[in-house]
Design a protein that fits this description.
The chain has 146 residues and is α+β, with helices and mostly antiparallel strands. It is built from four helices and seven strands, in the order βααβββαβαββ. The relative contact order is 0.15.
Amino acid sequence: MKIREFMESDLEDLYRTLSDPEVMKYIEDPYSMEDTQALLDDVLNSEERSIHAAEDDDGRYIGYVIFHQYEEDSYELGWLLNRSEWGKGFASRLTEMMIEEARKLGMNAVIECDPEQEVTRHIAGKYGFKFDEIYDGCEVYRLKLV
């Protein structure tokens, strides 16, 4: 499994993720191709990238991860996986990878999710994240690493 920077050639794969109503159910409205291109352009032109492509062990795009500084002492982590990849343990493996990266950076970790996102809440609990607050309609879970 690998997390890597997005490339222009990821447009179709990213669109497949962002245009799926089930994938986007708790996030926002599904994206059009134009919206996806605009997001990818923003990511590619940003010095501080907040989303990264996720690949399985065979190098196949499976979705993307969210990993960026959240507060002075913490990084937010999350994932959006193609529906065809649900239930395969990828979210857990990606969470482990991002927790380790936050630890290397000397940061704590945060997961935000819609209160109805049961899978995300389950994974947060599985890795020791503790519910902290509701912020902007999302539940905020924190993991103290430093």
